[in-house]
Amino acid sequence: QVQLVESGGGEVQPGGSLRLSCASTGGPFKFMTMEWYRQAPGQQRWLVASIDSSLRTFYTGSVKGRFTISRDNVASTVYLQMNDLKAEDTAIYYCNTRGRTIWGQGTQVTVSS
Fold this sequence. Notes:
By secondary structure, the chain is mainly β. The protein is 0% helix and 49% strand. It is globular. The protein starts with a strand and ends with a strand.
């Protein structure tokens, strides 16, 4: 059974950077499409970025050019490098694999001056 643990969140000022990590156990990681979602207070969770087994990536429009998703199949970990953070990036960030409906605790990202 796949288990995912997110880490790396924190509080930064606008324009700052953070790198989120998501460690996976229990599944064939190198074949899994990995996704990062976020959920801001009072809003639904939505997809931010994804990376498939062929390293094809997707980004939602508001993070293009600022966020980079990557993966390390040896470490079974997916990353989200977030640069030039804005207040509207404040949210709980979750990782998941496509089709999986179980969610972890996520990691809080707060962008505030």
